[in-house]
Amino acid sequence: MDILLLILGFVCVITGIIGSFLPALPGPGLSWIGILLLYLTNAVPNNYWVLGITLAITLLIMILDYIIPAKGTKKFGGSKYGVWGTNIGLIIGLFIPIPFGFIIGAFLGAFLGELLYDKDDHKRALKAATGSFLGFLVSSFMKFIVCMIFLGTFLYVSWTNRHFFF
């Protein structure tokens, strides 16, 4: 049972890293579930400090994930249409067969969303799309860093408690 929890936990942490760029997957949340599964094994002693601190970081990052792109859009003069366009373009960009299609999709989605809001002002739409895109990049990078730290924590704790392997 411990090996199954270890494997499921590792899969959750890796999926969380991927989810730090995809809006459909809660990256830090999945990574935290992976750490929780590790601590549910009999081989690793419970450490409520690690679980509590990582949960608090996860909740903070999940809240900031909604605030940062909206602030980036508003700072550059954008609307909610730009934020929605970013998310829709990101999802559509996942299915474009070019490298990093989700990044291009996010920018084009923000630009088209802003054009839907005000179709006559292309300059403002480009500026707002840039802000929305930068907010998305900052938020994704922040989630990626947290998920990588969670991966390091997972690997360190599982390696120092080698009861799984011996």
From TrEMBL:
Entry keyword set: Membrane, Transmembrane, Transmembrane helix
Keyword Transmembrane helix: yes
Domain of life: Bacteria
Keyword Glycosyltransferase: no
Residues that span the membrane, as ranges: 47-68, 88-113, 133-157
InterPro entries for the chain: DUF456
One protein family per Pfam: DUF456
Name of the molecule in the record: DUF456 domain-containing protein
Species assigned in the record: Flavobacterium terrae
Native organism taxonomy: Bacteria, Pseudomonadati, Bacteroidota, Flavobacteriia, Flavobacteriales
